[in-house]
Amino acid sequence: MKSLANEFFKTMADGAVAHQAAQADRYDLIVNGIKNETDLAQQVNLVEQMVARGVDAMVIAPADSKALIPALQRAQAAGVLVINIDNRLDATALAQAGLTIPFVGPDNRAGARAVGEVLAAELPAGAPVAIIEGVPTAFNGQQRRAGFEDAMRAAGMEIVGVQAGNWELAKANTIASAMLTRHPQLAAILCANDSMALGAVAAVTAAGRPEVKIVGFDNISAVQPLLADGRILATADQHAGDLAVFGIEAALRILSGEAAPADRTTTVDVITP
Predict the structure, then answer these.
(1) Integer Cα distance of 189 and 180 in angstroms
(2) Blockwise average pLDDT, block size 10, the chain, 273 residues
């Protein structure tokens, strides 16, 4: 997985552990994650460790859509089955490496657009808005930014700034604070995950700007009170507890002799108060 400091991935891990506990005679499970969202070297190292341990299959949420491909290519060459979840690996880079890796995960662009449409319904046309995106080299981050932009442009909003928060609360807090200073009329901040939305809420609170609307993505438990009291307007639930399980089940089917499945698009639900 990506960062275990992010509640989303803790929920993902818990779902996988519960699935394995219910059928411990079927497979063994090793759960790994990295310290923060940009620790690519550590995630590559974890892939190589699992190859050295002789695992049969690896279900991975890559921190970067291109940088992990060489390590996964070595894993496949060593006979390890690889399933891609959550953040889709770059299709062009996969083709160049001669790899076919099944993907199980949500349509992030559609999910982000749906969240953005909830926000747009609360704003007048032409309102200035800003976007805090995730890691720019991660496909899911690119897709969420695109989905937010789709919704804002369709509703006639003015996007006055886009900056990368790298999925992290503290970085997003700093960015949001600067955006609020730079744009006194800012009406909303769209955050590509809930950790960054929490950082934006803290910035809005510190600036005394409660009228600035915030949306996020992931529906982690930490945002529930903020949804309830209106400090966060909406988020998207991509069902973290199921994502790793779907990847594990795909791997088990292939290992039992079934053909590799087609890519699977999983559900994203918009969550509002």
Answers:
(1) 9
(2) 88 96 97 88 96 97 94 97 96 95 96 98 97 95 97 98 96 98 97 98 97 97 96 96 95 95 93 95
Q: How many angstroms separate the Cα of 198 from the Cα of each of 50, 236, 258? A: 34, 14, 43
57-60 and 81-85 beta bridge pairing: parallel
Using alpha carbons only, how large is the chain's radius of gyration in Å?
19
Q: Are strands 235-237 and 269-271 parallel, antiparallel or unpaired?
A: antiparallel
Provide CB contacts within 8 A for 178, sequence distance 6+.
none
Distance, CA of 13 to CA of 8 (rounded, Å): 9
The pLDDT value recorded for residue 5 is: 82
**59: amino acid identity, one letter:** V
Provide the whole-model pTM.
Answer: 0.90
Domains of the chain (ranges; CATH) run: 7-106+240-266 (3.40.50.2300), 108-237 (3.40.50.2300)
* Positive/negative CA dihedral, 240, 243, 245, 248: negative
**What DSSP designation does 64 have?**
S
